[in-house]
Amino acid sequence: MKTERSAGLHDQAKKLIPGGVNSPVRAFKSVGGVPRYFEKGSGAYVWDADGNRYIDYVLSWGPLILGHAHPDVLASLNDAATRGTSFGAPTHLETELAQLVVELVPSVEMVRFVNSGTEATMSALRLARAFTGRDKIVKFAGCYHGHADMLLVQAGSGVATLGLPDSPGVPEGATADTIVIPFNDLEAVEQVFAKWSDRVAAVIVEPIAGNMGLVKGSPEFLHGLQTMCRDHGSLFILDEVMTGFRVAIGGAQAFYGLDPDLTCLGKVIGGGLPVGAYAGKAEVMQTVAPVGPMYQAGTLSGNPLAMSAGLAALRALTEGDLFATISANTAKLVKGVVESGQEFNIPLQTGNAGTMFGVYFLAGAGADIVDFDTAKRYADTERYARYFHAMLERGVYFAPSQFEAGFVSSAHTEEDIDFSLKAIREFMEAERGI
Ligand code: KE4
What we know:
Blueprint (H helix, E strand, L loop, with lengths): L3 H11 L23 E5 L2 E4 L4 E4 L14 H11 L10 H13 L5 E5 L2 H16 L3 E5 L12 E2 L9 E2 L6 H4 L2 E4 L4 H11 L3 E6 L2 E2 L5 E2 L2 H14 L2 E5 L12 H5 L5 E5 L9 E5 L1 H4 L18 H14 L4 H22 L4 E6 L2 E6 L10 H7 L2 H13 L2 E2 L8 E2 L6 H18 L3
Parallel strand pairs: 3-17, 5-8, 5-9, 9-12, 12-13
Antiparallel strand pairs: 1-2, 2-3, 4-14, 6-7, 10-11, 13-14, 15-16, 16-18
Bound molecules: ligand KE4.
The site of ligand KE4 has 19 residues, from helix 4.
């Protein structure tokens, strides 16, 4: 496969942009090889600078649930752009998208738009601290909520101990109130509340983790979390930046029947443009300036381009049985992966929920990945890297890291799924016995 132009573009980019990329995962560090520089996307496909076409299962890390350059999204963008790209003043478009989010996401009564998932979670946690008057926040190892200082934190020495910075440049003070515990571990949550009870402002969780590979929160864990937050006057925050409108139209909270105080959204609601949102119960959201005292702002928050693209995407997504079709294709893909793994005795753990999925190659049979520790212990990242490149060579683009999730769009046809499964089966056959 020719990659000269991507390689040349990467050499050029590295001189001007750290690692040649504007987000680390794009540099292919964990899988090796030449990062692909894309030049065009249409439907389920992307083309790189060397003219290679790929079936895209990254979809810009989730946003493009209708595929690339969907006509409805383009039409709405063109229409909005001709009337100006940003006003720094309210428009009816923000109200329309907020109304749609309130209608679709069960727990949400009010919405504030921002420009990224990071901003959404950072603001939601500030809001929880403002609303409760408490400082401690609880997150789970392996869950990623963006790169705000207080969230770049690794677990403390013991369960329920305070977190330690997980990146240079993050001062100890920034993570001193962040507690990191194992995902899917309700006992650890009980220990946190036993120790910090009325000092916990909020617990934030990815209901289905998509940033350690795909690991589902168990219903007992998630409902137990919600109950303990209620019992201790802490806010229950679902980070649905990835799962929102992907696991179900109403997000993971609809899938599990949860009722969080706040929900963080992003990706799909921007239709491919930069959007994030934090949303939830009106009683809590009223704390946000200018109504309440908690400050948060943004020059381009709610801009007409992003609002138009998000509206077009969500309206198209909720038409007919489109969502069910994407989910069925996702399940078909995962079923085929499982069957190939069984046929050639390749140990795997897979997961799918709605229109997102995950595939772990396991270092041995019998492993069960339920949290970040087991993911790091059991995942065979070398085989995943071979898989990634074998697929790339065959024109199928999966996430360039074992610890990410995959996504399907309404543009992926059954033929695309079958083509992908044929490539996957060829890889599994070649890996037999390695
Ligand atoms: P952004 O700031 O990247 O828009 O969103 C941060 C974020 C928050 N919460 C969840 C659950 C997320 O998955 C993300 C971002 N997801 C990654 C994918 N692992 C974005 C890809 C990247 O960082 O380049």
